[in-house]
Specification:
The chain is α/β, with parallel strands linked by helices. Strand 1, helix 2 and strand 2 form a beta-alpha-beta unit. Strands 2-1-3-4-5 form a five-stranded parallel β-sheet, sandwiched between helices. Helix 2 packs across helix 8. The two termini are 28 Å apart. Helix content is 31%, strand content 16%.
């Protein structure tokens, strides 16, 4: 067996030292449940365009998403953050305007502007808390608003993008609701989302849970780096 530090990416040495988690090895986490981010994040391959974070969580998921963003920024991406519960946006009206007018949504608003960024994105991250088993209402509305990303044959209009999700919940079992996560992921290919990682922050009723979890933050940071790598 290799020394505990042998497989650790060099890019995370400083962060691991700061967090006091010197024993981190990414290969040890491969078979562990992964955490999903509660935000939407976007970057371009030349790492000069603004990134976008869609945060569907106001607590522990936000901590994880901020760490993902930091990993992306450290790899050269600029990040812009949207907090869903502070935004005024309508749910999909099922008007099918996006099927007629160049794929554009007929609803004007902050989310519509963010969707324009998603169209040209190379990677996207969506995060949500788990309420009564499923995602929160604003995040469900966001996924419905992604409808213009697919064509009439349910194929992506804007190519394939790296994609990740971040969830938080109050329960302690990291594998609880796995069937729901898999069920939700079935729609991602229609949007052109290639799921790279899914991170789950447990015991999230504790307002400092994510901040104290060095392993969780390192994994989130690694995700941000990987999405823009």
């Amino acid at each position: 067996m290799q020394p505990r530090t042998a497989c650790r990416p060099a890019a995370f040495e400083a962060l691991a030292k700061k967090e006091g988690f010197e024993g981190y090895r990414s290969d040890e986490l491969e078979n562990q449940p992964r955490v999903v981010c509660k935000n939407l994040f976007r970057y371009t391959k030349n790492f000069v365009s603004a990134g976008v974070l869609m945060n569907g969580d106001c607590f522990e998921g936000a901590t994880v998403m901020n760490t993902v963003a930091r990993g992306a920024q450290d790899n050269g991406a600029a990040v812009k953050t949207y907090t869903l519960f502070k935004m005024k946006f309508m749910a999909c009206q099922s008007c099918f305007n996006c099927r007629r007018e160049k794929g554009d949504c007929a609803i004007n608003g902050e989310v519509t502007a963010a969707l324009q960024l998603v169209n040209t994105a190379d990677a996207v991250v969506v995060g949500s808390p788990i309420y009564m088993m499923p995602m929160s209402g604003p995040v469900k509305n966001l996924y419905d608003r992604f409808f213009p990303l697919m064509d009439s044959d349910y194929k992506p209009r804007h190519g394939t993008k790296k994609f990740a999700t971040v969830y938080s919940r109050g329960m302690s079992d990291p594998r609880m609701f796995e069937s729901y996560f898999e069920y939700t992921a079935a729609m991602f290919p229609c949007f052109g989302f290639d799921l790279v990682d899914n991170i789950v922050c447990v015991d999230a009723n504790d307002p400092e849970r994510a901040e104290r979890d060095a392993e969780l933050k390192i994994r989130a940071y690694e995700l941000g780096k990987a999405l823009v790598g």
